[in-house]
Amino acid sequence: MKQDGGEAEAILRVANAAREVLSAAEALEEHAKAKSNEGARALHLARLTAAVDDLQSARDALDELLAKKLR
To answer: What pTM, to 2 d.p., does this model score?
Structure first.
């Protein structure tokens, strides 16, 4: 199945965003194990929140692209 550039870019964006969510979640988990200060915890939570938001945006864009192709 051949993908056009737009699909490939959208899939890559989803993959990269998913990796960032995983990385941010792992960093937060390590921080929780280390029991360091609350300021750092807030930064880790903010990073994770931003990563999840970016992943959702990337997934929505891919869904929209694929829905247009099916029409």
So the answer is: 0.85
